[in-house]
């Protein structure tokens, strides 16, 4: 937007904007009148009623379809497939190998295709692949299915994350990312409840084991949801396709593009395509610091695939009771994540809203490794589940808003951050050695260490962005062009 803020348009080629702005003799502000504010509220409300519910439901099934192996472990899954030693750990880990390999190519492709077709198509594929786990007869077949499942699931989260950042401003994004992330938390919670019902009511019905019914039922529901999403999911703000054709007026589309452009962190508007965006992302050291931050966070919550097994070691009751008791910590974590995100958005602060919940996770892990008391260990699970899941979504929102100098850079940088975070999901399952069951002391100690590393990277980024903001303010004084600052 010439003559306003020194940023490039989010989907507009305005390569002379920065130079034009430098020629302005006085500071200029974007004046937003009451009609514009009303229209913005209407746009956000429409997005909250269409885009958010669709990506939430798809992410719910995305995580449920990959994580139901944790519940299957409590059934006859390992016995039926002949799994021995650490083969279950390998099955958990291998999915993330496929996930890592596909994420960056997928996000680069996403900038050139229609999300309303691409993402639902991927969801249909992963639904079919996940359901096919029920047909696995041995370890080799399970590994092949899990690897392919990682490939077809990989496009979803970074793609959804990218679409949300294309529509929502920074002050709106953390709460929406947390709302999206609540789908993951609730999927984990309801996986236990669904598994408890399936194992109790359908085990060996038509000679099909309970864990097989679990994969069939959840895969079918996921496929159905993906089919419906094609008709509701909007494409990018400037697109004339998808639900945006009937959801937004031309004036609303234009404002959607403009408001994201105004929200960008101050930078030149150079955007030379996806290859240049990849170069910018790779050369920015903050991309790698955020990657380490999120990788450490993911390493710390590696308990997720073993949580039912950990609770089984508490000797709290039968298999059904154990599965039911997996739900409360995740249900509480959902409210924590939303509350932290709401506070982060209102206060326009990220670092402390990430670090403080992780401190509670460290306390929870410390209690877990220090006592054999059942009640104490179960209470501790609320601390580390709530602390780690409460902070994770803020990291995503922070990375997106800090690495958004061009649309292509944001797409590549967010994919890189997500890819590197998945490396933690590849090696972390091996923390849980079979010989350490049911306490998994080594795993808990390692998760504590990675939680601490995550806190260190958070405080480094917060300090670094504060220094960068001082530089931007100094440039503002010299040029007379208002700077748009990083959120710290």
UniProtKB/TrEMBL annotation:
Membrane topology: Multi-pass membrane protein
Signal peptide feature range: none
Domain of life, source organism: Eukaryota
Xref: InterPro entries: MFS (IPR011701), MFS_dom (IPR020846), MFS_trans_sf (IPR036259)
Listed GO MF terms: transmembrane transporter activity
TM helices/strands, residue ranges: 47-64, 84-104, 116-137, 143-168, 180-201, 213-233, 321-342, 354-372, 378-399, 440-461
Keywords per UniProt: Membrane, Transmembrane, Transmembrane helix, Transport
Residue ranges occupied by any Major facilitator superfamily (MFS) profile domain in the UniProt entry: 51-466
Positions in coiled-coil regions: none
Entry's Gene Ontology cellular component terms: membrane
Main location group: membrane
Protein name as annotated: Major facilitator superfamily (MFS) profile domain-containing protein
Taxonomic source organism: Didymosphaeria variabile
